[in-house]
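[step 3/7] inverse_fold.run input=structure_tokens len=278
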């Protein structure tokens, strides 16, 4: 995987670094909740990705979002550089394992983290939700039944769907507790007295934004000669590209319709990740 996949505050594309998955680490895959846990090797400089990009803690408690509140999604639709959808997005309906929400998604968004306004990860996005009739059959925009071979553009999509982070954390604890791999819970910060080993995402990004702003300021000074320039506005404080963390990642695994199209196989393992410690 390549990180970061984003543009800076000067709108120039960042120079990505390559990170590889640990080959002898057996992924933990949960088909029902549609996620897979993998381990990421350190970069060429010997640092895990979270040491550079920060991380977002996954919180096991429920109640991070209520119906009608805004959601924000960070992802790479259609493989593009990082895009952020904010405002005019809201939580519509809560199920035991999944949330339904209104937001702008496209193919390639599967695995994207969905945040509340406190930038806590609440959902791992994985699918679009079509309108159905009383018999549970999917409907087109014109009200007729979806037929085999229909393009996804004709389907009447009414919401997006993602797995609740609280359920993902609970499933990890159930799957790993009392096993030979229980230490993974500590690596993920899900055991008592585990501490983070990298900066939180907001702090790491603030440091990166400050450095980028400094470079931009110097560039403007170079172009303007002796004329002084003044940087205005605040530092960009959105989550980092692909919300990366030290060493362990969780992402959408199964090919699911996302924003109206089918998205194949382990397409976003680097999108929502868990900190190695924290």
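[step 3/7] decode complete -> sequence:
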């Amino acid at each position: 995987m390549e990180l970061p996949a984003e543009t800076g505050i000067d709108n120039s594309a960042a120079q990505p670094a390559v990170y590889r998955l640990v080959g002898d680490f057996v992924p933990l895959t949960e088909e029902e909740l549609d996620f897979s846990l993998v381990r990421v090797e350190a970069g060429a400089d010997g640092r895990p990705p979270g040491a550079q990009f920060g991380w977002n803690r996954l919180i096991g408690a429920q109640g991070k979002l209520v119906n009608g509140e805004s959601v924000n999604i960070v992802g790479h639709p259609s493989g593009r550089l990082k895009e952020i959808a904010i405002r005019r997005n809201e939580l519509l309906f809560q199920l035991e394992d999944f949330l339904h929400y209104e937001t702008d998604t496209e193919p390639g968004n599967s695995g994207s983290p969905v945040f509340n306004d406190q930038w806590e990860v609440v959902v791992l996005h994985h699918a679009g939700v079509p309108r159905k009739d009383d018999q549970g059959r999917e409907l087109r925009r014109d009200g007729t039944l979806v037929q085999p071979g229909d393009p996804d553009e004709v389907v009447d999509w009414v919401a997006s769907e993602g797995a609740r982070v609280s359920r993902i954390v609970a499933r990890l604890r159930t799957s790993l507790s009392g096993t030979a791999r229980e230490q993974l819970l500590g690596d993920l910060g899900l055991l008592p007295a585990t501490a983070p080993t990298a900066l939180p995402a907001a702090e790491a990004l603030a440091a990166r934004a400050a450095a980028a702003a400094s470079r931009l300021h110097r560039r403007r000074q170079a172009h303007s000669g002796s004329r002084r320039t003044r940087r205005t506005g605040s530092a960009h404080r959105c989550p980092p590209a692909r919300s990366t963390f030290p060493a362990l990642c969780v992402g959408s695994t199964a090919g699911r319709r996302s924003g109206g199209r089918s998205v194949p196989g382990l397409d976003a393992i680097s999108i929502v990740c868990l900190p190695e410690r924290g």
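[step 4/7] annotate
Residues 115 and 121 are 5 Å apart (CA to CA).
The first strand starts at residue 2 and ends at 3.
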